[in-house]
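Lecture 7 notes: from sequence to structure.

We start with a single chain of 129 residues. Read the sequence below before looking at the structure.
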Amino acid sequence: MARIAGVNIPDDKRIEIALAYIHGVGRPRSNQILAALKLDPNARTKTMNETDIGKLKDYIEKNFTIEGELKHQKQMNIKRLKDISCYRGIRHTKGLPARGQKTKTNTRTVRGNVRKTMGSGRKPAAEKT
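Now the structure, written as tokens:
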């Protein structure tokens, strides 16, 4: 089993798919990597030799932010938004959607309005008008 960037790459999958197991590498980026190194995307991981795997490892680690560093970078970006108290930061702090999704029906559990069926679980109105 090949190991790239601290992730075990599955042997029985095509290398194009297997590279997507690395956080920060999806299908388009794996195709881009394989094209740059002139490797066959249909080859299985177990059929690749050590030099090809070494080339893949070096190319990925030099050219892309992946795994732990990427996760740390994402967390720091969210922390920055929270520190400056912008709208998105406040939404992150409250655990609500930050990108404009509606909250009436989709984020019930976050708001504390858990419903098993459609009519149950509704919070009573504070005061009747």
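The helical segments are 15-18, 27-37, 50-63, 67-83, 87-94, 108-111. Keep this in mind for problem set 3.
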